[in-house]
Structure formats: C-alpha cells, structure tokens
C-alpha cells in the first residue's frame, strides 16, 4: 500500500478512536428509504415510496465529572432532501421539507442508552422524529442481551448480538405510549395484525467512548386482515448511517451538572423542552366537511334501500358514510333520524349509528328511542346491530345498562339483555382498556336479575341465562351449573352458557355437577341438555371413571336417538383430541363396555363438521348437529359456519331449528305422555358470536294449524336484515427513522336472513327454507405521513354470496323422513391493491393498481350418510 494511503487510513482510525470526545463534531451521511409493497420486498422493480438524504452532526458538548460515560450529545440535521420515484428510480423533488428549519436537539447518553432528549416543540414533528431515530441508533450493549428497551418506536423487545465491534440489534413488539388503544380491536379473526420487525447492524470503534463508524438497518411493517391473510400490505424501510469525518466544536461545557447545562443552552435556544425518546406521535386525519351527513345520505339513499341489502352497493355506501357520521354532532344525527324523506332507509341509518359507536351517535339513538316502552321493531333492530360491534367501549356498556334500567317491553328487554352480554364479552377481551370492576358489576347485575325472576314469568329466567351465555364470564359458571341441575328448559340454556365459556376456564368442580346433569341425578333432564353436559365433560380431560360412565350409557339404547347423538359427539371429539382418543381406546376392550354395542347405533341423530373452504391460512368449516325424536321428527338442529386460523376462531353464522311438544304428532306414546307442553317451533340465530332472541314460528296447536291451513308461513319472512361493522381496527408503528406507520382495517357486512315453512296437511309433509345472503367489503390502509410526503397502500376485497339451508319432512307414515340440504351460490372475491405516493404542495403523485378475482363456484354440501339416504328416498318419491 502506498505511504500516503497508509497515512490516510491511520488518520481515519485516529479520528474514529477519538469520536464523541468533547468538542469533536462527528459528521455522518444519512439516507433512509420507505417503500410500500405487497410482499415485504425491498428489491421490487415496482417502486412506490420515498427517499430522504441528509447530513447529521453528532457532538459531545458535556461530560459528567462523576461518570465519563454520561454525556450530552448534540444532534444536528442538515440539508435534508426528499426524492421520489420517477420511472422506478428515485429523483430529488421539491417539497415542504425544503422550507423547514431545524434546530439542534440534545440527548443525555449514558452507558450506551439514550436517557432523555431536549428539543424545540416549535420545530416540525417530522424533523424532531428523524433526530429521535438517529438517537436510537446510538443505543447499544456490550454483550448479548434480550431486554425491554424504549427508543423512537416506543417500548420494544430488543435482542442484542455482539461480535467484536459489530452489534446487531433486532427489535419487535413495540408499543408507543401515546397510541390510543381504544382504536384497536382485541386480537381475533375479525381484527387486523401488524407485524413489525427491525434489524440494525452497526460497526463501532473503541476509544474513550465507543462510536459508530457505520450502521445499516432494514425493517418492515406488515398489515393484513386476520380473516384473510392475503393480500397483505408492507411498509419496508432501509437506512444507512455512515461516518464522514470530523471537525471541531467551540461551544462545550465543563464542571457543571446537567440541569445547569440545559439552563445555559436555553439562553440561545429558549424553546428547549425535555422529553423522552419516543417519537412525537402525530396522526393526521382528513376531516370531512361539516354538515355533510344529510346530503351524503340523500345521495346514497337508493344504495341503502332494503332492495339493495346484501349487495355490494349497500356495503360501499355504508363504508363511505361511516367516517362522516363519526364527525357529526348529536343534533345532525337526530335530524337525519327524524327526517320523513329518509324513512324508507331508517333501519339502515340505525345500523350506521350503531356502527359509528361515538358518544354523539349513541346519545342520538338513545334519545330517539327514550320514551319507547312498547314493542318497536326498529329499536330491536338497533340493539341487535349494537351487539356486533367489533370494539365496544365503557361508555356504550354504561349507556346500554342505563337504557335497560327503565321499563321496556318484554321482547325488547330480552334483546337488550342479550346484547349487553355480547358486548360485555367483546369488551372484556380488550384487556388493554377493559375496566375489570365494571365487568364484574355487569356480571353481578345479570346474576342478581336471574335470582329475582318471578317464578310465574315464562321468559325472565331464560332471558337472563341467555345474557350470561353471551357474556361467557368464567365466574358465572357456578350459577349456570346451579340452573343446569334443576332440569327443564332452563337447564338447556344453562349448559349452553357453560359451553360458551372457554373450557380451560371452567372450574374443576364443574365436572361433578355436569356428571350429575348427564346422569339425571336430582332432576330429569332433556336429552339435548344431557348431550351437551357429556360434551363438556369430554373436553375437560375426564378421569377414566367419568369416561367409562359415558361409554356405558351408549350401551343403553332404550332411547336410540339419544345414544346415537351421544356416540356422534364422542366420535367427533376423539377425532380432534388425540389424548381423549387414546383414553377411549384403552377402555373399549373392557367387558362391561362392549366395543361393538357402544359404537354401533341405529338412530338418525348425528353431528359432524367438515371443511367448507380453505384460503390463505384461514379454514372455513361447516357443521351440523341433528337431534331427532324417536319417530323421526326433528327435535333440535344446529347448523353453523365458522372461521378458524392462527388468530383464533369465530362463528360466522349459526342457525338452529327447535321443536317441543310435538310428540303427539311425531314420537312414541311414552314420549307423548311424558311431554304435555304446547307445540312450539322456532329458530335460533347466532351471528359473529352473538346469539339473538329466538324467532318463534308458533307456540300453540291452534297457531300451528292456522299456519298450515292459511299458508301464512310459506312466504319468506325476514329474520335479520342489517348492515354491520365486521372490522374496525387501527394499528400504529413507528419506524426506526421516526416516521409513523398507521394501519387501518374496516369491514362492512350486509346480511339478509329469512325463513319460510310450507306445511301440507293433505300430503303430510313440510318444506322449510332458511336463506342467508350477504355482501362484504374489507379495506385495509397502511400509510406513512411524514408531513412533507405521503406514502400509502390500500388493499380491498369484496364479495357477495349466500347460503341456503333446506329441511324437508315427510310425515305421511312412521318413521318420518327428514332431508336436510345446504348449498351456497357462486362467489367472486375481488381483490384490489393500490399503492401511491404524493408530495403535498406539489403536483407530484405516483400510483400503481392491481386487480384480481378469485371464483368459487356454487356447490351443495353433503351431510351424513343417514341424511343422504333419506334425501335420496324423498327425491325419488317426488319424481
């Protein structure tokens, strides 16, 4: 190597070894690039984003006399320039950044950790955050460590890996203290996920204090819907921080404490204020113009009409209106609700008010219905819509409880109780903001209401049990078990409530009570109640004697339908629980179990669960529980469609048909004599884990005959028609360069559920049809707003389809024939991805779009063999 080269190298090493010494200005070139993409790919040829370049000066201006590693370092950001894509290459572009002035910031640096920062609050937040990002680069450890550490991104999990003078710092799970957690849903299928990972590699030189010679970092923030993992959006960031020489600094401070130094600095920078290393958190929302609610609704009125329910027109109109109503006053909202010209879309406007969920919206709605003490279908409609809210808050629960405190019509009271229970469950899952004391207050309110029920009231106990079922509070398990042990119709609701509580949270003593329910000790139990009690026991890793008890019950086939249904439950659970399967296999060979007779059943009752569709990490399944009477008439049927993936599970739709008191029509003589209740039939509907008040077709023999002769049930009757907020989630992540990434996920679901039943006493058959049609829009937006440049990505998927559930019963002769069928119509899922960058104050905008469609053809779904055989028999007779 030439002598001159050696001298130059030695000079550079000498300069580095004295870096961060008092009075030495360390110069660096700093570059950071932010891109938006679908696949977290910094090397993509399709570039959408922005690039920033600046010079940075780091100068130690004070050293503690007691601790030499404690220093005050001045950070200066000089000549920052913005570049934006032009034909996939970054070119410098004028922006507001050129007009911004930057003043020095100061950090207190001790043992490799930035303790505090002082800067001028009048300086633009983007420049202050950039300097906080640079201060975060200085954070280091001297050995491998896993720590919680606060930097520009907030409090993060940080992993340090040290090899010589090279330090790798990886961080994730960052939480910024200023982000409003009320904006986030609890983690689940309906929410969003924002995955953040940052890695920085720095080369340090040892001197009196270590100093950076070079840093490079990469990171990404990936946003996706938990219901459908693809498409996703990524914000990719990479930065370089490279040493570029030194110069001397004249203004240094000695022999003073830090407080005196700051006071002296304030003489030349009067605006200096102390802060922490977290980024200045600024979220800039585009505020809709005032008084826009009524004219926008009028413009979209046709799209919101009942005839367009369950169509994409309705969900897109609803989506447009949601941000507008959220900024509207209580008076504006009331004016819309009272407007006669909008009366035909009033149910949809009430859906909008419930999805809005702001204080102004709720005050307007409750004032609108305040004096209502008779049954009002619009009031019930509004309360049902509230139950689906993805992120209820404390104010909503308090307002609903206060509204419930006044005398309400019986059906309205039932719906209010069940909605309050559902919202309590959703609110309790939001652990970051949930008020534990208020949650307990509502639970106690439900349980006290249950205890106070008048014995002569037909529905009071059922209503409170249903509210406890929706609430799913583990502490309610004892009172639910108490009512389960009493038997009767209340017992069925009680065990359904226990089933809705996560099984691992059920108290161990519940197994004793459930075994009593199963064995009918203390009270005679409905076969449905016994079957659910057995299911709960199977889920709790039962002891061998409990499992043996259940297996022995299968040998008693006096009630063939019960033993068949119980056998189906057992077979289902051993198919998904390997431990249970092993335990059952151990017991089956025992003489008193009798392998063949325990599992060979001849009843029609059964259950099963099968895959519906599996896409992008999400499994959608459908299941059926079918309980029959001895004569073949359906007793209780539950059909459901569920989501399941890494984020958890959720019931999208649950449709149940039930019938009691029909033993005189279908069943043996013994059952008819034992059951003297009035003929009753109806439908239970659950939607997004919210179980609604039962829809009853008839309650007496005369009502049943009236429907049969008049054909009043043969027309499709709406059961649930509404537009709902499917998702409403926000995330925020601060990049290592100090720029704030905001993620939003909003979804709107429009649904129309209806039912009909055609009964022919002449042909002795019935045909029931439950139609469920819907449309969904889910839009995710991820954006980086630096003030002088705005980079954004948008994903959207839309689709509309339907599921029909048919039940045909032929009761011409015994045994009756029941045929159930399910089918869904064609489904086209449209995906749109838009990436853009624009520079405020200029005409620059770059945008890239991508569209694709996934077609899922309509199909019919097979049930179990018994049902398929009966359908084949029914269809062959009708031909």
From TrEMBL:
InterPro entries reported in the protein's UniProt record: Lipid_transp_b-sht_shell, Lipovitellin_superhlx_dom, MTP_lip-bd, MTTP, Vitellinogen_b-sht_N, Vitellogenin_N
Keyword Endoplasmic reticulum part of the UniProt annotation: yes
Official protein name in the record: Microsomal triglyceride transfer protein large subunit
Annotated ranges, domain Vitellogenin: 20-643
Compartment annotation: Endoplasmic reticulum
Highest taxon of the lineage: Eukaryota
Entry keyword set: Endoplasmic reticulum, Signal, Transport
Keyword Cytoplasm: no
Major subcellular site: endoplasmic reticulum
GO biological process, one term: lipoprotein metabolic process
One of the record's GO cellular component terms: basolateral plasma membrane
Any GO MF annotation of the entry: phospholipid transporter activity
Signal peptide: 1-19
Matching SMART domains: LPD_N
